[in-house]
Each structure stands twice: as C-alpha cells, then as structure tokens.
Automatic annotation (TrEMBL):
All copies of domain Flagellar basal-body/hook protein C-terminal, residue ranges: 380-422
Keywords: Bacterial flagellum
PANTHER family: FLAGELLAR HOOK PROTEIN FLGE (PTHR30435:SF1), FLAGELLAR PROTEIN (PTHR30435)
This protein's record includes keyword Transferase: no
Flagellar hook protein FlgE D2 domain residues: 175-294
Protein task: A flexible structure which links the flagellar filament to the drive apparatus in the basal body.
Domain Flagellar hook protein FlgE/F/G-like D1 per the UniProt entry, residue ranges: 84-137
SUPFAM superfamilies associated with the record: Flagellar hook protein flgE (SSF117143)
Localisation per UniProt entry: Bacterial flagellum basal body
Family label: Belongs to the flagella basal body rod proteins family.
Matches recorded under InterPro entries: Falgellar_hook_FlgE_sf (IPR037058), Flag_bb_rod_N (IPR001444), Flagellar_basal_body_rod_CS (IPR019776), Flagellar_FlgE/F/G (IPR020013), Flg_bb/hook_C_dom (IPR010930), FlgE/F/G-like (IPR037925), FlgE_D2 (IPR011491), LlgE_F_G-like_D1 (IPR053967)
Limits of the Flagellar basal body rod protein N-terminal domain: 7-37
Name the UniProt record assigns to this protein: Flagellar hook protein FlgE
Amino acid sequence: MSLSAALSTAVSGLTAQSRALSAISENIANSSTTAYKTTDVYFQALVSGGKGSSTSTSAVTAKSSQAMSVQGTVTSTSVATNVAIQDAGFFVVTSDPAGAASEDMYTRNGSFETNADGYLINTEGFYLMGWPTDAEGNVLASNTNDLTGLSAINLSSIGGTAKATTEIEMSANVPADAAVGAALTTSMQMIDSLGVSHTVGQTWTKTADNTWELTLSDPVLTSDGTTQSGTINGGPYTVVFNTDGSLGSVTPALDFTVTGFSSGAADSAVSLDIGEVGGTDGVTQYASTSSTIGLEDVQTEQDGALYGELSGISIDSDGLVTANFDNGISLAIYQIPIATFSNPNGLTLVSGTTYDENSAAGQVHLNLPGEGGAGSLVASALEGSTTDIATEFNKMIIAQQAYSAASQVVSSASDMFDSLIQAVR
C-alpha cells in the first residue's frame, strides 16, 4: 500500500468513527425520548483494485440503522389518552389533519393529548388516525385494510348526549291485607331521547285474592308534575302472586311505548321489570307493616340518562376511543388500528420517531390490536427509549480510541510526506 493509500484509508477511518460518535451522541441525547429506537453504526470494508492487483487499496465506510423491533420499557402515566404498543406495530399518524396535503406516517410515540382544535396529537406534532365507529364500537369503514378509511381523531364535534330509557326495574311490596277493590298509586321516572325527564304514574288495583291489575298513566313533565308530556300505549296488566308472596305471573308482558312527547323526542319503547317469576327479587305481596295500607319499599331504577356534557376521553387496551360524559354515559367514537410491516427496519425516518413506508419495509397492513401479528395496546402508558447509557459509553470509548489511532496514522503519513519533500530538495 502506498503512502497516499495509507493516508486515504486513515481519513476514511476518521470519517467512519465520526459518524459512530455522532450516532452515540444522538442515542445518549434521546435516552429519555418516548419510543426512541437506538441507532447502531456498523462498518464495512471497501477494497479497490482487481484480484491479485498490487495497486489495491482498502478503506472503510459506516452505515447506520435502527433496531425497530426492539421493545422499549412501557411505563404507566396519568394521562388517559397516552397509549403504548407492546410488541410489533405502529400508530398511523398524519401531519395534516384536514387532509389537503395529508400523508400517512407511522410512529410508536403514543404521547397523545387533545389540542385546542380537539385533535389527538403527540409531542412531535403528529395527529393520530383512526376509524370512526358507531356508539357500540363497530367500525363504520367498509374496508379496514385501506388507509383511506382512516381519519384524524377529532373530538371537537362531540357535544353533550342523553340516553332514552329502555328498561325500568322495580321492587316493592303490595299489601296482602288490602281489601279487594283497593287502589294504590306510585310513580316512576323515565328519560326521553332528548334527556327530558318524565314521570309515569302507576295504579295497583286489587281485583281478587293474590291478583292485582296494574295500569299506567300518561307521563307528565317531572319538572312540574302537571303538564302531560306524552301518551302511554300498553296495559292494563294482570299481576298474580303465589301463596308464598312471590311473583306468580304477569299478563301481558310488561312492555309499553310512549308516543307524542311534548319535548319533540323520539317515541320510546320501555320494558318494566318487576322481578323474576317465582322469586322475591322485585315486587312481592306480603302483609303491610304500617297502619296505613299502601305500597311499601318502592324502589325504581331506569337506564336512561339526562343530558350531559363531555367530561373526558379514554383509550382502552382494544384501541377503542371512548367519549365519557358527566351523566355517566360513555360512547365509543373511534377505533385505533395498528400498522405492521414485514420489515419494519426498512422504514424511512421522517422526523424524531416518525417514519414513512417504502418498498424495503414491505406493504402496510392494518390490524386491530392483538390481531394479525399486531402488538397489544397498553392504556395510560408510554414506551420508553431503547438507549442503554452504559452500552453507549462503552461504544464511545471504542470509537474515541479508533479515531485517535486513525488521526495518528494521518499525522505519521504527513511527517513522512514532509521527509520525502525535504529529501527531494
């Protein structure tokens, strides 16, 4: 090898070790960065000249890569919209939620929080993508393998909500010692689809021993108790008790509808559950415990909810984004998919911990968490950096020694060139 070849080789070593030190510096700087993947530098020998040639020279080149499949430590957080991926896969994100210049990208940085415009955005400024769902969590997109079915998760359009009553559970004791023909009254609450509360009256009339007739009256507004607010359709119902006070039978089934709500709400279909036949878990018939004959221990519970405002957002381990309201109602609004690639190490780094697909990574596949090779989600958690400080310091010492040695070669070659020039003179 000639003197000039030795100098050239040493310079290539300096360049390669400089790149290694740069990667080590980046790794150490990102030791606390969410979902950061450590950059490794590997060296490759370059040889010029043909086989057996006496003029062949060698050099070194450095290339870097990130181990995308290495799992970072998952740590719990107090933020409900933070989410981490355990095992394989990426979140689908975009830099343009409006879609005008939208390009889908991929990240494992799940530090999502709601911004001023209602979007879920991570610390790098990328918007989380998901499939819109119905209130039961069913994905509305017809093709879940196509990225075009995704949209940036936006919470700004979610207002308050209410839930219409569909079932009322009732427990009480009707007095066995009441005279035939006695009529006893009580009432129950129901909510319409607009969140307005109504009161429905009940009249229990004893028609024979162990037999009562239940009739329901048209609802009135709970707020004033005098204004009729709808029309009841259903009943009367015959309720028979067994000789041991348990419920014997109900004829017909205790279902009714309310139409023509004055609030403008949709018609309601309601089921009244007064207990299991043969049981004492609902309405029973025993002797009265009071000198005044009447219904006792009346308790009703209905599944409707008054109007409520949005109180928060949560993401569960199935990737379901749920809107929670202050009236106790929770509605599913988006489903988060996980994107997988046959070769995630082939992804192109865009910025920070965000990547773009290319032919080297293979085709993107969208899956529900835990399905089709996709990892699972951990709610209220973040994945940590894969950088190990001790390892990086060890690599830094090796790179520093190699760099010093290569620089010594350059210095020695320079001295030898000086000696040659002086000899010529």
